Amino acid sequence: MGMLLIKGIGKLVTGDLSQPILEADAILIEDGLIKKVGKEKDLETADVEKVIDVGGMTVTPGLIDSHCHPVIGDFTPRQRQLDFIASSLHGGVTTVISAGEVHTPGRPRDAAGTKALATLAAKAFANFRPGGVKVLGGGLILEPGLKEEDFAQMAREGVTHVGEIGLGAVKRPQDAAPMVRWAKKYGMVVMMHTGGTSIPGSTTVTAEQVMATDPDVVAHLNGGPTAVPIHEAEKIIGETDYAFEIVHCGNPKVALEIIKIAHQKGAFGRILIGNDAPSGTGVIPLGILRVVNFIASLGGVKAEEAIAMATGNTAKVYRLKRGVIKEGYEADLVVMDAPMGSVGRDALEAIEAGDIPGIAAVLVDGEVQAWVSRNTPPPVRRCKQEER
Question: Torsion angle, CA of 87/88/93/96, rounded to 10 degrees?
Fold first, then answer.
């Protein structure tokens, strides 16, 4: 792939809450990985083959949608739309995590079938990137009859996580908890539905049930779309160390309450941001950016912190070597700027003002997948590319 230099960076947002902005103006990329981050004058650029000058714009990690319900391919039967994942790339999303392929027509509901579906989805999406987006597919839907050896085999075959507990017939903590222990034993990350019902067959889930099941991720704590009572959310945040999602398709009032509680509890590092689409709310290509804007403009969260919740926080939970601009990590990046007409002078100021930033370029593994986004407002500035 050769070596790429991204230079002229105005603000570099790392995706790491411990140091959300780095004093750097250049990134050196080699073979799809970040080789060096720093000042251009200090980098060794003799072997650079391509240069992208971002002209003072902001560079962030590629956004990670922590909650999606795909089926095989880039089509949603729920909303009968094609290319919805590819469209999210134009909203800055470079990774999507399946919360379970629950909308699959004729979805099997027996142990062998749900195991086969998770394995197929994990393997298919490992080979298929819609629009360049990396999809962590195969969110296992728990069904009765699964045994420990099934989890061991699925882990060997590339299934990395359990989708929302509660979407299948296994709902009660006493039934789910043993499976959760098996999943964790074989390295899987486990998420669990919370709040009110979302689709026929799902159930209302309380904080007590979540804690008895012991997942890694509390899905859509602000509702999917109906939220738990705020005292239930406070219990989960205050009495556990679980990661918890704020999703676009949830309750916006509760989302702001969750932000307040998380701030009081020092729990910003546990917040993940997802779409929870396709859902009854629809397909929202800018959903992750919209949640970032929402909590930064109305929730008092700094823009760079909100971006970390949509990048590095999620990558850490799912053990992905991306989502942070750091040497050795995958070069999934977004170049963004204030949109034309915004009161913000750059992308971060625009976000805090409530404006969707203009995306000027999206890179996956160091390769440009899109230049100016077809979905965001146009950025004030543009990238310049040259070859050496």
Answer: -110
Q: Name the nearest CA neighbour of 163 among 204, 132, 202, 131.
A: 202
State the Cα–Cα distance between residues 63 and 47, nearest whole angstrom.
29
Taking only the tens place, the pLDDT of each residue in 149-174 is 999 999 999 999 999 999 999 999 99
Q: Higher pLDDT residue, 281 or 289? A: 289
- Residue 135 falls in which region: left (phi positive, over 0), alpha (psi -120 to 50) or beta: beta
| Length of the chain (residues) | 388
Nearest to residue 301, comparing CAs of 267, 346, 326?
267
Q: CA 209 to CA 350: how far, in whole Å?
A: 40
- For the residues of 96-125, what is the DSSP string, one character each? EEES--TT-TT---SHHHHHHHHHHHHHHH
Which residue type is seen at 264?
Q
Query: Which one has a higher pLDDT value, 326 or 224?
Result: 326
pLDDT class for 2, splitting at 50, 70, 90? confident
Contacts of 14 (CB under 8 A, 6+ apart): 20, 21, 22, 61, 304, 308, 312, 324, 325, 326
- Is 225 in a helix, a strand, or coil? coil
Task: Give the DSSP letter of residue 38.
Answer: E
Q: Give residues with Cβ within 8 angstroms of 302, minimum separation 6.
A: 20, 296, 348, 352
On whether the CB atoms of residues 56 and 208 are closer than 8 A, the answer is no
> Residue 129, Cα to own-chain centre: how many angstroms?
15
Q: How confident is the model at residue 369 (pLDDT cuts 50, 70, 90)?
A: very high
Give the Cα separation of 99 and 248 in Å (integer): 14
Q: Which helix (H) or strand (E) holds 63?
A: strand 63-68
- Cα–Cα distance for residue pair 92/376, rounded to 1 Å: 9
Instruction: Measure the CA–CA gap between 216 and 372, rounded to whole angstroms.
Output: 36
Please name each of the domains of the chain with its CATH number: 3-61+324-387 (2.30.40.10), 63-285 (3.20.20.140)
